[in-house]
């Protein structure tokens, strides 16, 4: 009896996952005529451009900084505009000191596929951050770690969007 119950439960879970449209995400793919992702930035040593370069290589794509891209003909150019970080107050302690912020990291970038118009895109990465005035040093280090994670997430979003933008761009021809 218990064996039949386990089979039934596993069948129901499988059907539910298949019915809801869940599927494993494949690695980002770019068109065959694209041989590299060229990372350029408005600021020379922007932290987001370094994070994007690292994440591009993690995904198995050929990442190149713009200053090294002189010899490449067929590369997708990702130009990162200056990012913006805002803090919005969420809550305060009874003493009036800030207890929690919402960090809003806004990323703007431009994508240029070979022989195509540039595409301008923007998105936000949002995190809650709890502040503690009694542990200022530890909280400043924690804030740096949270910002690094937000940059890595932004780089992942850019790479995933590159794949979908490439599909839309080249199917539209």
Tags for this model:
173 residues; alpha/beta; 3 helices; 6 strands
Short description:
The chain contains three helices and six strands. It is 38% helix and 30% strand. The model has no long low-confidence stretch (mean pLDDT 82).
Describe this structure as you would to a colleague:
It is a single chain. The protein is an alpha/beta fold and 173 residues long. The protein is 38% helix and 30% strand. The protein contains three helices and six strands. The protein has helices at residues 2-19, 47-58, 136-171, and strands at residues 36-41, 63-65, 75-80, 84-92, 98-112, 118-130. Strands 1, 2, 3, 4, 5 and 6 form a six-stranded mixed β-sheet that branches. A hairpin with a 5-residue loop joins strand 4 (84-92) and strand 5. Helix 2 (47-58) packs across helix 3 (136-171). It is flat. The model has no long low-confidence stretch (mean pLDDT 82).
Q: Strand portion, in percent?
A: 25-35%
Helix content: 25-40%
Oligomer: single chain
- Unreliable segments (pLDDT under 50, ≥5 consecutive)? none
Topology:
Blueprint: H1 2-19, E1 36-41, H2 47-58, E2 63-65, E3 75-80, E4 84-92, E5 98-112, E6 118-130, H3 136-171
Helix pairs in contact: 2-3
């Amino acid at each position: 009896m218990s064996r039949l119950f386990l089979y039934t439960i596993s069948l129901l879970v499988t059907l539910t996952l298949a019915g809801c449209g869940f599927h494993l995400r494949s690695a980002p793919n770019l068109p065959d005529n694209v041989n590299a992702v060229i990372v350029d930035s408005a600021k020379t040593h922007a932290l987001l451009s370094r994070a994007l370069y690292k994440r591009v290589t993690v995904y198995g794509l050929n990442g190149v900084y713009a200053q090294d891209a002189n010899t490449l003909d067929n590369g997708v150019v990702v130009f990162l505009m200056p990012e913006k970080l805002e803090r919005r107050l969420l809550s305060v302690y009874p003493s009036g000191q800030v207890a929690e912020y919402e960090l809003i990291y806004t990323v703007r970038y431009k994508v240029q596929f070979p022989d195509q118009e540039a595409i301008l895109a923007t998105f936000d990465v949002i995190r809650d951050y709890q502040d503690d005035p009694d542990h200022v040093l530890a909280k400043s280090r924690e804030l740096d770690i949270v910002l690094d994670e937000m940059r890595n997430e932004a780089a992942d979003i850019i790479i995933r969007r590159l794949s979908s933008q490439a599909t839309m761009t080249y199917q539209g021809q």
